[in-house]
Input
Amino acid sequence: MKIWKLLSPKTLTEEERPDSISAPTQAKVKVTKVLLAYPEIRAYTGASGVRFPRVPGMFAVGVVTETGEGCVAVEKNSRVYLNGTYACGECAECRKGNESGCLSPVISGVDRDGFLRDFVVAEEAHLFPLPPSVGDDIALYAGLVSLCEDIIDKLDVPKGTHVAVVGAGETGNILSQLLIYHQAVPILIDESEDKLAVAAKCGVYYTLKADEDLMENLSQITGGRMAEGCVFTSFCGLSPDLPFEITAKRGKVIYAGMEFPEMTVHLKKALDKEISVTGATRGYAQCAAAINLLVNKAVDFKPLLAAEANAADIPKLFASNAEILEKEKRVPLTIVNMI
Ligand SMILES: [Zn+2]
Output
C-alpha cells in the first residue's frame, strides 16, 4: 500500500507499506477522497506539534474491498465514511463505559496515522456506510458536521435564540446552517464579504461584516439584547476578545475548531458579564447523526465545496497551502482524489 508520510516539518515522502486485515472485525478500504484542511497543513508545518513520522489525513471516504469474517455492517463495495476520531478506551470515562465522553479521543493524522494513503485497514466500528444520496464530496464534511452538532448540544439554547457565529469559514458556515435547522437564529460575522456572501447563498440570512458598525447592527437584529450564545471558530482571523463584546450578560461563549492556535483573551469583560466559556473540539460521537443530517440535506454544500486536486499534486498542495497559511492565517480546503 502506498502512504504519504511526514518525516519532519515540511518533509513529505511517499512509501510502500504492507498492511492486511489482522482481526475478524476489520475491513480493508480503498481510500477514494481525502479532505485536506487546517490540521493537515498545520501538521505539515510542525505548528500543531504532531509527533513525526506521521501519515496525515483526518477526513476521508472510501470503498470496502475486503472484510474480516466478523464484519456485519459493511460488505465488499460498501461506500464508507472513515471516522478518524474515536474513544481511547483507557481514560476514566472510557473505563466507566462512557466512550462518547472520552477524555482523550484518538485522532487520525494527529495521534495515529491518518488516511493519506491508497488503502487503509480499519475496525468496522470506525466505518460508516454511506447512503447513495450522500455523495463522496459531501460525506467528507461529516466530521465537521459532527463537530457542529456537538457545539449545538453544548450551546443548548431554546428555539429562536440569537447565536453569534464568529468566522464564516467552513465550520462557521455549516454551524450557522445547522443552527437554522435546529430553529435557532444564527448571526454570522466575518471580515470577508466573500465568505459572508457564500454563507448567504447557503441560506444564512443574518450575515454581518466585522467592522465599526458591528455592535449597532447586532443590536438591531437582537432588539438590543445582543447574542445570547456565541461561537468563535478557530483560525477565523478575528480577535478572540470579540465574543465577550457581543455576547449578552450571562450568555454562553464556545471556542470551537478541530484545533486551536495559541490565544490570549482579556477575561475581565467576560467575568463582569458573568459569561460562561467553554471549548468544543471534536464531537466524534455524533458521526451517525451527522450522516443522517447529510441525508436530510440539512446543509447546502454547493456554494461551499472545496476545490479538487489529484493525488499526484499532494506534495505541491502541502507546500503551497503552508505558504498561504503563514501569510494569511486562513487556508482553503482541498478535496484530494486518491484514484
Ligand atoms: Zn477515553
The chain has two domains: 2-141+301-337, 145-280. Residues 188 and 285 are 26 Å apart (CA to CA).
